[in-house]
Amino acid sequence: MAYQVTARKWRPRKFDEVVAQEHITTTLKNAILSERIAQCYLLCGPRGVGKTTTARILAKALNCSARDGADPCDACESCKSIAVGTSMNVLEIDGASNNSVEDIRELREVVRYAATEGTYKIYIIDEVHMLSTAAFNALLKTLEEPPAHVVFIFATTEVQAVPDTILSRCQRFNFRRVSAGRIAQHLRLIADNEGIRADERALFVLANRADGALRDAESLFDQVVSLDADGISVDAVEHVLGLVDRAVYFELIEAIHASAPGGVLDCIERAIEAGAEVEEFAHGLVERVRYVLLANVQGSAAELDVAEEDGQRYEALAAAFAVEDLMRMLQVLMDLESEFKRSVSPRFRLELALVRLALMGRAVDVGELLVRLKALENGTVLPPSVAAGQGERPPASAPKSGAAPTSPNSAPSRPESAAPNAVPDRTESAVSAPAAHKVNEPPTAPSPSESTQDAEAAGADMSLEQLAARWDELVDAVRAVQPALAIFLKGAQLLAVEGKSVKLGFAADDRFPMAQVVKNRESIEAICAERLGGSVRLTCVVAGGTDEAGKAKKKADAPEGDPTVRSVLDAFDGELV
């Protein structure tokens, strides 16, 4: 017998032999068994997935005289004639070359004649979307009400080009692309039956190259077998098909992760010297980065249609990259496709894009940047773990050795066991614990070491000398919560203590420290109230530049000096703005 290519030799002859189209073959088998035969079937989908094969199996099953269930016997005269293309009852028409209205008019005349043998007269029109608009319109009436013995089977790869008036008269079946795993499994079956040794990775390379078309994979299989009929290896597949070695792609991705532009250029040079086209190289890189992204998102490479050894490499690369970085790489590589078409030097375009990826650095979450910017506004220095996006809040800085011990009721630092995925607002975290003790709530009980002094302070207003003696202690208490704020407070000058109001002076060129103290005044007041055992009100002014007489005159002329205003301020615990 003359040589037959694998696609013809292994063409399915029964419904169950059609690969990866069970949703269609099961429906057709049930329709045949229940004798619910439609007047027209439309089989649509990508190339090489079994549309014409399914049409022939359906035609043989409808006219088979010794049918076993829904599958044709493949032994009767009708099945044999259909298989070799000599049947008078099954006519295969090429829509591309018979697309005129005259061809359809001739078809309308022929369909009136009954089948010479069997039950149905079947017309298979391949690439039906190639018919002209006039031809489609001429077919409408015959397609809607054909003779009882006529069945139309249309096949097309571009169903969007078929008019809606035709679609509404057909039972439509959408064929799917065959997964790389199913294609590799089918190629393994062919290789075992043909006595050909085949490496698993080589079969997956062929399957991925076929892009979901089983017929393409079988054609590539024949091409590689022609090189070495005894065995199929990865090297043979890459050599015959002109593919780039997988190791080059893995090294290239690792060089991008290591920010090594020299390694990137070396990988490109090796691929080009091996004979790879720039566009083909970029296409293969997109495929590998896609697998890394899927392994990262899914947590493993178990769902990928790749060999087990390659799956381990993809998992290792997925652990090294963030999802944002992989998505950025894919976007840059896919944009290269349009740039290649209008570029005078596609290789330079590729080198420029990949070197840029290697030097671009890692992506940073926008939420993390906002937290860090807010912390800078508040003068808070974030530790490295938070700045790196770890999401863990470090414990508050301990007071200096010379500072007084913190009372049990002071604001505790957040424990390290806090939820790592919640990065709180730095300003809120610094204020929340002390601010919880409102001014109008009763003060907390002081520690035993401070009971006598706090009792004295609670019983009467503290003088300027008493507050100055404890000022360093208050600054250290603030430092335990907000270190930067304590630095600004340390540079302030105690000017006066009037009842519950404490006036702080800042130099004329210290506007920024004064603004930070005013902004976080409630936090400082809460800490002072907790330490001193009573409410305190801070007032910040610019000090210096006037003599004592001028200060006294300014104070007398100020509204705060008025006794009535002073009493209102004390009653409402307010301040003049």
Strand elements, count: 10
The amount of helix comes to: 40-55%
- Oligomer, anyone? single chain
Side-by-side strand order of the widest sheet: 2-3-4-1-5
Morphology:
elongated
Poorly predicted segments: 384-460, 545-556
Class per helix and strand makeup: alpha/beta
- Average pLDDT works out at 78
User: How can the largest sheet be summarized?
Assistant: 5 strands, parallel
The proportion of strand residues reads 5-15%
Gyration radius, rounded: 41 Å
Q: Separation of termini? A: 104 Å
Total helical elements: 28
Summarize the structure.
With 577 residues, this protein is α/β, with parallel strands linked by helices. The chain has helices at residues 6-9, 22-33, 51-63, 77-84, 101-110, 133-144, 164-167, 180-194, 200-210, 214-227, 234-241, 246-257, 261-273, 278-298, 308-320, 323-341, 346-360, 366-377, 384-387, 426-435, 451-459, 464-469, 471-479, 483-490, 511-519, 521-532, 548-557, 563-572, and strands at 40-44, 90-94, 121-126, 150-156, 171-174, 197-198, 231-232, 493-498, 501-506, 537-542.
